[in-house]
Design a protein that fits this description.
It is a single chain. The protein is an alpha+beta fold and 299 residues long. Helix content is 33%, strand content 13%. The radius of gyration is 20 Å and the shape is globular.
Length: 299
Amino acid sequence: MNRVENVLPRFIRDMFSMVPMAGEGLHNWLFKTARVLHRYRSEHEIFELLTAATFNRGRYISEREIINAIRNSKKDAWNPGQNSASGLKSRPWPDSNHEQIEAVVKDGPELVDLWEVSPLRFDDNLSHTEEILDAIFPGDPLLCIGKSTYEFATHHRKTWRGRLAALSLIVPSPMSTKYGRTLEGKRSEHCLDNTGARHFLVIEFDQGTRDQHAALIWHLQSEYLPLAMVLFSGYKSLHGWFYVKGIGENILKLFMRKAVVLGADPATWTRSQFVRMPDGLRDNGEKQTVFFFNPEVIK
């Protein structure tokens, strides 16, 4: 962070000294910080600064998320003499509404309730990753899967067979081609360019308890879209996999906004965003256990 110190205005240096953790406003911090940096840095330099600042903040920050923050904030770039909070015509995502969150979790189901109503339950300690992926991605689609955000590949389902239980990350939709181009023009097996149409939209909650996450996910499925799966991240959060194949992006954007109001992390809106492998293994050794599975909603 030496490039920040003694060069940028004090208020910007203060912003870099208070980078929030995932689930505490990190996505909005990216937008606000990118907005005030346009006056002082090129887009490439802003990208490097934000990439370094958001490393190890509780979740993987994709290249796409940072580039979007830079590009979306440029039209409202801050100028000296202007309040850093003024001039914002719109924000990418709404703030969470604590009153709505409390109302939903007050009498909502707990994690054990989701387990009990799950149409398909796994009662042993074995990994069921292979059969889960057979159900949610039938046939032999291209899948982008990773051991980490730096170790990943895109192969057909048959190539991955027998190797999935030890892996932790997956793009929740099939890939359209093995390789694509990043926004920086680099050839990659994991980027938006080679990610196919949405099959699942994953909703992740970081704040609160797992029982509270269960109530929020159940509320979203009961009010809006079919819930295919709920799994544990292996750290502290629950992830709800909603089956959305064939549903228009405008409808899904409204759904995502409702989820963000309830405290969901908006990063999973990006189609190419890695999410946790069902029943896979996190790098800390924790199993990413599936607590709810309803393959019947998958058509």
